[in-house]
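Appendix B. Raw example, untouched.
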Amino acid sequence: MADAVTISRPSTGGGGGSGNWTDDIGEATLDGEIALEMQSSAPSATADYAKIYSRLDEAGEYVPDAELLLHFEGGLTDSSGEGNHGSVIQGVPTYAVSTSGGSRDNSTFGKAIDFRGSAAISFPDIGIGTGDFTVEFFVNFDNAQSGVSVVFGYADLAAGPGHLQIYRYNGVWYTLFWDHTLGTPAYTSPIPWTETLVDHTWYHVALVREGSDLSFYRDGVRKVHVTSHPVDFVIGGAETWAIGRIGNITTYQTWGQVDEFLMTKTAKYSDATYTVPTKPRAAKANLYAMDGAGNEQNLTP
């Protein structure tokens, strides 16, 4: 278990006045002040007492501005705190601990979602519009060098505005922006990047828009940097956000696994490199309770 923060009485305790705890041993209340102290070890059970605490390093990175955070620990719960929970729109995805290597230590990440069997999921529009954004994830392909494998895709090819895709086609990474309100050109793929990947291997991918700059990263290294992409390419609207296929299009699938899918409406990375996450992220402060028998409950799932 990670280090924890515990709540302690302020030094001005006593009397129950402003900023003080009551002195009632059976029921401690707080008026106006709270003191937090970093502990060097995790909480332990104490008979007849309950402990409330927050794990500060539960994740490799604290992401307070997350709009969508899917850990895929057996389900589609959004851990960002924004309530953008996923739902199955095609097939039957499965969840399993992966033993594949690559840019992550699989023992720390738990389960991943498996899209083999033509499965796909959807989640609500987070409202990117023309603003900055970051979408990032771990991906593990069955066939990394052949065919089409769509990791992420929004909308369909017959409606707009708001189309966005991230996919591989015959060994090339692509992003595709599509906005029918702009006329010609109706779409652009500013980031083609050819590289050989190994089947059944985890890679960390990030796509970042900051103003008119687009950056594509793989395993923490910027592979492509475009400085003049049109900022009026809208992302979002009334179509379908999907992982495992292109929005409403059911013919192109992701063959493999995806994990730790994160979206923010900020440009998280702007340098040539970043550190690939080594633990699952936390979007909001994680608050836990432990009873006297050592049973732990997450109060902010």
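End of appendix B.
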